[in-house]
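Dear colleague,

Thank you for sharing your sequence with our group. We've completed the structure prediction you requested, and as agreed, I am returning the results in plain text so they can be pasted directly into your records. Please verify that the sequence below matches your submission; if there's any discrepancy, let me know and we will rerun it promptly.
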Amino acid sequence: MELAWITGANGLIGRQLCNPPPDHVPDWWVRGLTRADVDLTDFAAVRQLFQREQPRLIVHCAALSKSTACQADPALARMLNVEVTRFLAELAADIAFFFFSSDLVFDGRQGNYDESAAINPLSIYGETKAAAEQIVLANPKHTVIRTSLNGGVSPTGDRGFNEEIRRAWQEGRTLNLFTDEFRSPIPASATARAVWELARLEQTGLIHIAGSQRLSRWEIGQLLAARWPQLKPKLEPGSLKDYRGAPRAPDTSLNCAKAQALLSFPLPGLRDYLAAHPDETF
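Please find the predicted structure tokens below.
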């Protein structure tokens, strides 16, 4: 079997990619990379490891993914999200390379965005992802996966949107959730399965992988509140019209018809997924 590197292996999607059901990755020996293995900003060390191990696929999940952290430190966001991606893409010039981008490359004025839609990021995070997309897509052997909110269980307990909500309620906080901000949430396990299928198909270019149901932040909160009544969840509806912080995109829901035509399974919507997996830790 050939070697596949997964960067950001301690993150939500990275963990799922490193621990898939055996039938999902029959052609690959999976190697998860964390900061303990190599600092991705130490380009000399990464190059040395690449030359020694000679992976034939890199799935690049590592990033500064918190929008607030990117807004607070744009230079760090650019280094981690753009320059690291640039270096890895150059290192992987002759092999398969998958890069994770975000629905936040869109301004949210339209919704139901497909791969042909024009991008217009409103945040530093979105800007860095858009810049990295251009770098990756310059190589016809490489792949950009745009995804939306991913949920599940991460090693640190704070990477999934569900984990952030759960922690707030465990701490007794009341969440104000927008009724007019929409995303396409998806379980990270489904995202990982889709990526392995696309890798097997040698799919390149730009492709959207997200949930099949467009949900507001408020609707997501209601679904999770119903799932965790023991937390005595407290939430109240809010509106972007009353929000005074950094710009937020109102509707970055993704159209995943291109991916769905390639995959062997339906991309699940969050409402349907939770109903079908009532006993799963989420």
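Summary note from our side: The radius of gyration is 18 Å.

Kind regards,
the structure core
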